[in-house]
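User: Can you recover a sequence for this backbone? Please restate the input before giving your answer.

Assistant: Of course. Working from this structure:
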């Protein structure tokens, strides 16, 4: 076969009968001329020719992706070789089925595989290799950069749900006391925990766990699907394998995709589902085939169950266009879409009913009613502070995401500029242009989503794991940007090959340089954060036996602020974690009496950023009972510049506020007795100077003044003031530490709960038991990390017990 398909050339293309052109072409603009004798040649094997006019470089027939075989979304079948086999007797083939069908049936599997591989175009082979490399990178990052998961603690939710599904349960069981084992952003419903998200994405990872015991295959398949589907959609939108391969490359090289591909989150799976939806609808509508539309409906249903707001924003313009332009085909398209939608809709309704008791209520709304769309007071969980979210905050959050997006998307700024140019010149097909409109609508819609503001301003994690809420915007960006880049390259090359090479090389180098800087910086930051978790995990592994570790967590969830403190579904891991909550800690300790009990104290801003404090301290716990139990409260100095400080003790409805010196560490004795908390229960021991001091034989800490004489800091506690707490309950004592800045604003520094049970107030236990039972610390066992330590320490004083 001879052909001329170089850019800018036209002319006849000779194609042997029974074969497909090896170079792509645009069938819409082509004129096919059948030369004399071709008809007989197709029947008898004599040569003929097909003349194709106006070839477009790498343009392909609509639906022919170059992948060979059936792609599952309407791709062409493998090329057929209908040349008849020669017969010994010289007879012509008999009428009936083509001889090639019989020949194909006699091919060995290896031969069929070779034929199929030979039919794959060069760009498609490149994309397949790119997809495999992307999968390898995802698995490597998973085990090197994110072996303990990332600082996005939602990963722990998805992983716990996946492990639960792999064990055959829809929800993790909740043993009594349920809130002591509460996972991050979970809530207790009956005898189980309901996690915040629907089970569709966890089910993907659960399949990998069931089949291989690992989530690695699921991570690999998701990113491979993202790369391949981007290529397929690019072919469908632009009819160009070259443009589609460029779009897939830009997606695969984006630092946002590279890091998200190693995380157990929903953003990358949603990107795949959204593209499958668009691809299936466009291909099925054009070719009038039901199968791609059904697949699109299935993908649409799952995507809407996972991230409904993203689906509405990105696909609304395209959906309206399809509704207006599918004249005579609306019912057909809608019917097959509904066929695909039926299964995921039914599953999400059943899942919602099991989780919330209402088929129309998502688990997302179960934990905190104020975690919702729109402006106003917003909260992430019960007990969270009030966050006033308005228009300015929404605009600022989207601006922050876009600022990062310019570097976290490969060629982000350049692609955006190219997309704007091709859109302004009306060089886009209607579906491509409407995808771009969906991207703009997506950005506008996220102005009213407080979660983006929380991620950008209150938490700040998007600086280390990328602006993940904008992952769907990559779809229009890489496709429209790739089309713009190709057209710009053609225009530059038309002015001269040398100029074109310089322009392409310069632009590519700039894009790759920025991408490398962003990616290397992100990997370094996450390696630092992972190092903190690795040190914490190693410290816990050094504890003897199978320890029970109470986590002094604020907010009271496991798996936050570090995924190291998360339990498995069965609570049978070598290290069992529980939230330090109060009197329930005594129940947990009794239920696991065979496990030595410890308390884990984390710095208040642990792993909020690579530069945040990473101090973690483990203390040995023990139970003490009697008529009264004495404990020592030790308070470190407040941060430099603090104007004043105070310690607040709360027990039930009673509260004591005790002023302390802000620049001097302070110790006091707290006596826990059966009559509750009062001002006589607190006695000052000493205030420990944090200058160059020492401790004398009586335990009083001293330091030297300028004249060299020792001075003792004692009695520096202010007079405790008592007050009452409305709706207070419980017998445990909560110790909180506050400091007032020079501006007069009081800041929370630390908090710890001392579990206390008073027999006289515990109706479930006989009054003949010990009047007071306390679970307290015997002292520090180990410590890791750097930065400011948790400033509170509560130690059982056995001498006064």
């Amino acid at each position: 076969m001879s052909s001329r398909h170089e850019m800018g050339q036209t002319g006849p293309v000779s194609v042997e009968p029974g074969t497909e052109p090896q170079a792509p072409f645009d069938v819409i603009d082509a004129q096919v001329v059948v030369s004399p004798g071709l008809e007989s040649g197709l029947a008898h094997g004599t040569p003929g020719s097909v003349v194709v006019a106006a070839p477009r470089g790498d343009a392909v027939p609509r639906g022919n992706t170059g992948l060979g075989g059936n792609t599952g979304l309407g791709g062409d079948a493998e090329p057929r070789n209908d040349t008849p086999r020669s017969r010994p007797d010289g007879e012509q083939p008999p009428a009936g089925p083509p001889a090639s069908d019989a020949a194909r049936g006699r091919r060995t599997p290896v031969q069929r595989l070779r034929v199929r591989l030979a039919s794959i175009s060069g760009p498609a082979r490149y994309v397949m290799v790119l997809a495999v490399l992307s999968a390898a990178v995802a698995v490597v990052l998973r085990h090197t950069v994110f072996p303990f998961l990332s600082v996005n603690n939602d990963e722990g939710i998805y992983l716990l749900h996946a492990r639960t599904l792999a064990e055959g349960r829809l929800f993790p069981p909740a043993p009594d006391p349920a809130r002591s084992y509460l996972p991050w952003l979970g809530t207790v419903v009956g005898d189980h925990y309901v996690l915040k998200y629907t089970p569709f994405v966890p089910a993907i990872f659960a399949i990998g766990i069931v089949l291989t015991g690992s989530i690695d295959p699921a991570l690999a398949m998701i990113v491979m699907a993202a790369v391949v589907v981007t290529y397929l959609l690019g072919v469908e939108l632009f009819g160009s394998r070259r443009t589609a391969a460029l779009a897939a490359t830009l997606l695969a090289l984006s630092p946002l995709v590279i890091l998200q591909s190693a995380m157990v989150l929903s953003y990358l799976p949603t990107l795949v589902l959204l593209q499958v939806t668009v691809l299936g609808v466009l291909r099925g509508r054009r070719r009038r085939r039901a199968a791609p539309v059904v697949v699109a409906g299935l993908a649409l249903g799952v995507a809407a169950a996972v991230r409904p707001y993203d689906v509405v924003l990105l696909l609304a313009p395209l959906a309206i266009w399809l509704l207006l332009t599918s004249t005579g085909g609306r019912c057909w398209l809608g019917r097959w879409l509904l066929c695909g939608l039926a299964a995921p809709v039914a599953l999400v309704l059943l899942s919602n009913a099991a989780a919330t008791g209402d088929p129309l209520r998502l688990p997302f709304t179960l934990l905190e009613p104020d975690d919702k769309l729109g402006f106003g007071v917003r909260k992430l969980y019960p007990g969270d502070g009030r966050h006033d979210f308005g228009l300015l905050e929404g605009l600022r959050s989207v601006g922050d995401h876009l600022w990062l997006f310019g570097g976290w998307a490969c060629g982000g700024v350049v692609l955006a500029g190219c997309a704007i140019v091709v859109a302004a010149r009306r060089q886009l097909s209607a579906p491509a242009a409407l995808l771009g409109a969906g991207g703009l609508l997506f950005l506008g819609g996220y102005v009213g989503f407080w979660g983006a503001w929380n991620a950008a301003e209150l938490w700040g994690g998007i600086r280390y794991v990328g602006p993940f809420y904008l992952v769907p915007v990559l779809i229009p960006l890489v496709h429209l940007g790739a089309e713009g880049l190709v057209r710009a390259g053609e225009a530059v090359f038309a002015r001269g090959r040398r100029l074109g090479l310089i322009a392409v090389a310069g632009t590519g180098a700039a894009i790759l340089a920025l991408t490398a800087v962003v990616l290397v910086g992100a990997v370094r930051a996450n390696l630092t954060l992972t190092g903190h978790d690795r040190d914490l995990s190693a410290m816990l592994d050094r504890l003897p036996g199978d320890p029970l570790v109470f986590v002094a967590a604020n907010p009271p969830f496991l798996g936050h602020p570090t995924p190291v403190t998360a339990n498995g579904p069965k609570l049978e891991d070598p290290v069992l974690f529980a939230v330090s909550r109060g009197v329930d800690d005594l129940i947990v300790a009794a239920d696991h009496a065979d496990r030595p009990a410890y308390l884990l104290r984390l710095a208040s801003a642990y792993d909020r950023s690579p530069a945040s404090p990473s101090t973690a301290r483990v203390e040995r716990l023990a139970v003490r009972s009697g008529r009264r139990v004495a404990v020592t409260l030790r308070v470190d100095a407040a941060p430099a510049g603090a104007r004043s400080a105070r310690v607040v003790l709360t027990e039930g409805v009673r509260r004591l506020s005790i002023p302390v010196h802000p620049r001097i560490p302070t110790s006091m004795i707290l006596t826990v007795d059966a009559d509750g908390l009062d001002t006589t229960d607190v006695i000052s021991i000493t205030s420990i100077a944090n200058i160059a001091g020492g401790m004398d034989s009586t335990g009083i800490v001293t330091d030297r003044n300028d004249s060299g004489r020792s001075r003792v800091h004692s009695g520096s506690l202010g007079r405790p003031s008592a007050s009452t707490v409305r709706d207070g309950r419980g017998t445990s004592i909560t110790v909180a530490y506050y400091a007032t800045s020079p501006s007069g604003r009081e800041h929370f520094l630390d908090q710890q709960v001392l579990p206390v049970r008073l027999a006289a107030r515990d109706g479930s236990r006989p009054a003949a038991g010990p009047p007071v039972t306390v679970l307290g610390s015997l002292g520090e066992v180990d410590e890791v990390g750097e930065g400011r330590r948790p400033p509170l320490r509560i130690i059982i004083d056995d001498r006064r017990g």
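That completes the design. The longest strand covers residues 772-784.
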